[in-house]
What we know:
- By secondary structure, the chain is of the alpha/beta class.
- It has three helices and eight strands, in the order ββαββαβββαβ.
- It has helices at 52-75, 107-114, 171-189; strands at residues 11-14, 25-32, 83-84, 92-103, 132-141, 147-155, 159-160, 202-203.
- The protein has a six-stranded mixed sheet with strand order 1-6-5-4-2-3, with helices on one face.
- The radius of gyration is 18 Å and the shape is elongated.
- The termini are far apart.
- The model is unreliable at 110-128 and 200-207 (pLDDT under 50).
Amino acid sequence: SIEDDTLPFNHAWVDPELPLGYYTEVYFRSVTIDKLPKDSWGASSSVYISSEKDFLKESQLLAEYFLQQLKKKVEKYPNGTMKVVEKPEAHGLVFDIALTEIEFSHPIENTGALLAPVPGSAMLFSTISDPHVAFAIRVYDGKTGKLVATAADRKYPPARLMDFNKVTATSPNREIVSTWAEIIAEVLNRDGFAKVSSRGIFSILPW
């Protein structure tokens, strides 16, 4: 298969025979957390997430938020050509999304980064253990059920000189999935194979 380098994901493949302009509807069938690695909750352990039960609860809420954002971003896309539907349609696409990695923020630990006296030194606190989310997407033809696209990505929140999002456990993760929803909305409404922006990796603003 040939990767689609116009999409800002770690992996993206779109059936090269997919007819342009054929699809006018999209059904976001599911966003699930059942592919999360067993016992992965420990990396998110904090005063807010003290057990696997807490982690799974917040993960499910994140999945539901992602689904809401997908529908919202597509429905409100300026001059959009895609309609959100609640079942597979003949000229529709069907999305199944699995969240495959989730690490929530560590609010107490990150407070120190916000108080760093040297401008820019807060970024030194960013490590591989920072909050992040990963997904795997499979997209099907609504009529035939044929697999027509796949994507996978892992994303961290944008680096900021002061990141107030990190004061809460789940805000960075919500920002990530909201950004993904925005990107997917653009992908669904783009002209042909126009390149889609990753939305950048650095922001100087604290919100």
